[in-house]
Amino acid sequence: MILLGLICLTLIPNAFIAGLHDVPNAIAIPVRTRALTPPAATRLAAGFNTLGVLLALPLGIYLYTWFEFPQMEPRLLLAVVFSAALALFGWNLFTYLRGMPTSTTHALLAGFLGGTLAAAVVADLDFEQVLAMPWAGAALTLLLSPLAAFGLAYLLVFVAVRFARGEDPDAVNTTSRMTQAVSVGVTSLGTGLQQGQRFSFVLLTALVAAEVDDAQMWLPYAYVGFALMIGAGCLSGGWRIGHTLGHRLVEIDPLRGMVATTSTSALLFIGSLGFALPLSTSLTAASTVIGAGSNQRFTTVHWRQFRRICRYWVLTPIAAGTATAVFTLALSPLLG
């Protein structure tokens, strides 16, 4: 029960930093192209993120039934979950301070893999059972989603330019900004659905491992807390990452900004609600910005900044997995 309490306490700041980390993915480009003012964008994003978290309860339960850990002593499983939550918070805080849009989903899955491998060493579990867990499907989704987001945004620029050809530039910019304003709500809703799935999966795993009676009964109360903390994080704006996406990564006009934001919202909403896929909001949003921005006569993507972001994307699973494994090994002697 002590471990369960520590996990719950760790999830509270994790929810706040998740909102802080992910809100720029929805508002950076609309604010950059003056589709919305910063206060209006943050309030809109916070409201729809909160709603998305509340709607994600059935998806989180589905994710738990799909992703099962190998049989291990309950306290050891709780140690893995606690270690993953600690590693996730530390990495998300570090990358936010660095202004890097990294993936919370990527870090969480890598943390669970590292922690489970460490638990297998401690408890002498069968490594084949660990490797047989559905890592491949989740990893493949996370790897392919940025490529799909880049390709979709790049191709949709051709369609948008064709429709805008011959139209009044002011009218095109006005329509593009209005569409971006709508996409803030849709993207934030999809982000909330993803965040709700992640946190409910972690909490439900901990509750079941702690042998809490009627574990699913506690989830609705927890969802309210997660939604409020994520909403509070969104209200802060996350401007360190927002400045990277909106100003340092690409020089983008309202039309291409519209393509980037609508591509992100479509992929997240369809992926989260339609297929319950573990998509990364950060990777998807950054990829659509690069895809839309690079489809110009003179490319305006700041490739040095893009390479820097890619390095953090590669480091995310390594850092989260290693940290979780170290924390799990350090906690194991204290489990009695």
From TrEMBL:
The lineage of its organism: Bacteria, Bacillati, Actinomycetota, Actinomycetes, Micrococcales. Keywords: Membrane, Transmembrane, Transmembrane helix, Transport. GO terms for biological process: phosphate ion transmembrane transport. InterPro entries: Phos_transporter. It comes from the Bacteria. One of its GO terms (molecular function) is phosphate transmembrane transporter activity. The chain crosses the membrane at residues 44-64, 76-94, 106-123, 135-161, 221-239, 312-335. This is PiT family inorganic phosphate transporter. It is found in: Membrane. Its main location: membrane. Pfam families: PHO4. GO terms for cellular component: membrane. It is a multi-pass membrane protein.
